Amino acid sequence: MTSNRVKERIGINRVSTIVENLWECGWQEYAAQNDDAIDGVILMRRGSKRPIDTGGLVFVQVKCGANGYRQDQAQYPRHIGIQLGKGYIDSHMPRWHRVPGPAVLIFVDDSVSKDCPPAWWVNLRHENVISPTNQGMILIPKTQIFSHHTKGDFRKICGLGSSELPR
To answer: How far apart, in whole angstroms, are the C-alpha atoms of residue 163 and residue 167?
Structure first.
């Protein structure tokens, strides 16, 4: 069985690979002693040759481990259920609302692959993020796959429409 430390690293590595290599944006990981419900920040950039910071920041909580967190609910077949516990969500939700930008949870499923695991994301400020039948569970729409195509979604939650980006 993979240790929690290794699982955490798999999750963080997957996020940083997508953000830095595929999106060509910045990823700033927080050291464990500074991790206060946020594992890192995505610095949104535009362009490839000389990427320009857009000013958009996305605060990220990463969870990895299908055998620990993932507990899909039959009544929500279009969602992935991430069991965090009511106490965890109650203590962290105020922090996710306090950061000066969008806060997302990215779930990485290392049971499929340790090298290139699939991942999904959800806006933690969305009103329907907590399961109505289990207050300790975050629901992630299965359509919200975290991949190279997700960059546009993250620009939108930052309020950066294509016409608002610096040239």
So the answer is: 9
Neighbours of 120 (CB within 10 A): 22
Residue pair 41/58 in contact by the 8 Å Cβ criterion:
yes
According to DSSP, the residues that pair with 103 across neighbouring strands are 59
**Residue 4 corresponds to which tokens in the numbers above?**
């929690």
Between 66 and 14, the higher pLDDT residue: 14
Note the pLDDT of residue 164: 46
Query: Residue 149: CB partners within 8 Å, gap ≥ 6?
Result: none
| 3-state DSSP assignment of residue 36 | coil
**Whole-number Å distance between alpha carbons of 23 and 46:** 9
Averaged pLDDT for residues 39-57: 92
Joined together, the tokens standing for residue 116 give: 């290139």
Select the more confidently predicted residue: 167 or 66: 66
CA 108 vs CA 15, 55, 90: distances in Å: 8, 26, 22
